[in-house]
Specification:
The protein is of the alpha/beta class. It has helices at 29-33, 52-61, 76-79, 86-95, 97-102, 120-133, 151-159, 195-198, 205-208, 215-229, 246-259, 267-272, and strands at residues 5-10, 39-42, 69-73, 105-111, 139-142, 163-164, 166-168, 185-190, 234-239, 263-265, 280-283. The model has no long low-confidence stretch (mean pLDDT 96).
């Protein structure tokens, strides 16, 4: 791999991680899990705008890891509801100011719905989002509809000066599944391959992301990472199959596969996923 690759996870605060990732009650969860990965994607900003005081607190908790950084999700009002409230735009700029000033927020992810297709109205909405955020944030756009992988649509996205996410998720006839080289900084999201729940309208979030990549699948991911890393100045890989710590386990496996280096692994995670024993240099940091 010619350019740097950073492996991380989506979020860190999940009730079902108790006893698996977090086996002790007297630890700070963010500070603890940041020891194992290069980057964490902040996902609660999908539901509420960031607050500067909270971002400062998060920065203090990861201060001991100088190479660690964050990415963050844009609020669902912008990406799922088609809204562009200027007050919330200001909240994002002000709330993330501490991270932007320190260079610890590398990318802002705009994740759109599966039915957000390439139309004139949707292009206009994207342009408005970039107008409001593009000067301050390095934006990664996740589109899931196949209409965006036509050459003219990709040129439109490229002209916006955004990065377009590469994705691993269950296939469908309308899915965006093209290997996409748009933008300077690559963003590769691993959602799992739980097709049954992914396409079920009744499935809850935990069910949708209840998936564990096996060795063969991880080797496929590795090959994609190696190819993508030659095309971008840097590549961020985010595992999002978070249920019961699956994303952290797979992230650690990918770090081992890509580098050959043994990983520090939480002992509770090894109990949940015994196959991690083969990659563990040591367990439990304290």
């Amino acid at each position: 791999m010619n350019n740097p690759v950073y492996i991380g996870i989506a979020g860190w605060s999940y009730p079902d991680w108790k006893g698996i990732v977090y086996t002790k009650s007297n630890i700070d969860q963010l500070e603890y899990v940041a020891r194992f990965v290069d980057v964490i994607e902040i996902n609660n900003t999908f539901y509420r705008p960031p607050e500067a005081r909270i971002c400062k607190s998060w920065l203090s908790k990861v201060a001991g890891f100088p190479d660690f950084f964050f990415t963050a999700k844009l609020h669902k009002d912008f990406t799922h509801e088609g809204k562009l409230d200027q007050e919330m735009v200001k909240q994002f700029h002000y709330g993330f100011e501490p991270m932007l000033e320190t260079g610890k927020l590398k990318q802002l992810l705009a994740q759109f719905r599966y039915d957000f297709d390439d139309t004139a109205d949707n292009r206009s909405h994207l342009q408005k989002i970039i107008h409001n955020f593009g000067k301050s944030f390095d934006i990664a756009v996740e589109v899931r509809h196949s209409s965006w992988q036509q050459s003219e649509a990709l040129k439109f996205l490229d002209d916006l000066q955004v990065s377009v996410c590469n994705l691993d998720y269950p296939p469908s006839s309308t899915a965006f599944d093209k290997t996409c080289i748009v933008g300077k900084h690559g963003y590769f999201r691993l959602h799992g391959r739980n097709a049954e729940k992914w396409f079920s309208k009744d499935a809850g979030r935990d069910e949708v992301y209840n998936y564990y990549y096996n060795e063969k699948e991880l080797d496929e991911i590795k090959q994609r990472i190696e190819k993508l890393s030659t095309e971008f100045q840097r590549l961020t890989v985010i595992a999002n199959n978070h249920y019961r710590g699956g994303e952290l386990a797979n992230a650690l496996e990918l770090k081992w596969i890509l580098t050959g280096a043994k990983q520090i692994v939480p002992d509770g995670l090894i109990k949940q996923y015994p196959q991690l024993a083969r990659i563990a240099g040591k367990t439990n940091l304290f």
